[in-house]
Amino acid sequence: MACDFFTVDTVLLRRYYVLFFIELKTRDVHLAGITTNPTGAWTTRAARNFMMRSERTIRFLIRDGAGQFIGAFDEVFRSDGTSIIRTPPYTPVANAYAERWVGTVRRELCDRTLIWNRRHLEQLLRQYVGHYDTHRPHRSLGQRAPNNAEVVEHQPGRPIRRHRTCSGLINEYRQAARTIPQRPTDNELVSFDAPTSPPHDPTPTSTTFTDHSNALSGTHRSNAPNFHSGKAERSNGSRKHSRRSARRCPSPRSTASPSRYEAPWGSKPSSG
User: Which one of 38, 137, 196, 218 is most buried, by most CB atoms within 10 A?
Assistant: First the structure.
């Protein structure tokens, strides 16, 4: 296990200190806390809370010689049988796993967005740690995530779904399950709020049509529609409608000169 601090500056020029722990074997990252004043008492309380949530036995803990890691901080881990390894001064390579994660979180998250306040920073870090532990592949782990023991192989024929995290800064891609979409039935298409229509009777009903061509002789034909008579009725009705329209709406005055057979408007034809 290794631990370290890294700083994040907000838009309002406020600096926050983030304490984290990383497991060297699995590369699993744990956030311990965010504060603006990392004192020794705060660091000890954060370590105690981390040990209460942890279920694994820690063999050793790598830390630097910062003033926040006081004796009480070390006693929290020593009480559980953990050895404390302090790195030499000005040698960040001695704590390479923690320093590498600081560079990763800066490149992939902090350098690509503007942090407004502590709540915003904590929300983004929680989402990124979840992405880092459950989805992001690691070359040292055989292209698998820290919390995933199996390598997801690409299977052709399956669609790929995209899932956004960290407020859209990072995209996660997963293959969808191989399911064939089924066509919804008639019962699924009916809305429960809409009124249902009465059942349709498939029995055909007999309809009687009158043949107007034989009306004078008094003969009728049933179940035999006469389409010619219908066309004649529609044509007669359209003619009557056109005549009424012509009487109601006279044609406008013609701009051409009147002929010898018609007189201009408002005058009488000459007797000669």
Answer: 38
Contact 17, 33 (CB under 8 A): no
Kindly indicate whether the domain formed by 2-139+163-174 is annotated with CATH number 3.30.420.10: yes
Distance CA 225, CA 213 (A): 12
d(CA 252, CA 255): 9
Delimit the domains of the chain by residue range: 2-139+163-174
| Strand residue runs (E) in 121-250 | 160-165, 170-175
CA 189 to chain CA centroid, Å, is: 24
Burial label, 82 (beta-carbon count in 10 A; 0-12, 13-18, 19+): middle
Pairing of strands 60-63, 83-86: parallel
What is the C-alpha to C-alpha distance for residues 257 and 180, in angstroms, rounded to an integer? 79
Query: Which residue's structure tokens are 């699993």?
Result: 28
13: left (phi over 0), alpha (psi -120 to 50) or beta: left
Average pLDDT, the chain: 74
- Per the listing, tokens 């969808």 go with 176
> Distance between CA atoms of 4 and 98, rounded to whole angstroms?
6
Give exposure, 110-124, as e/b (b: 16+ Cβ within 10 Å): beeeebeeeeebbeb
pLDDT tens-place string over residues 100-131: 999 999 999 999 999 999 999 999 999 999 88
Rounded CA separation 154/140 (Å)? 20
Tokens coding 219: 């003969």
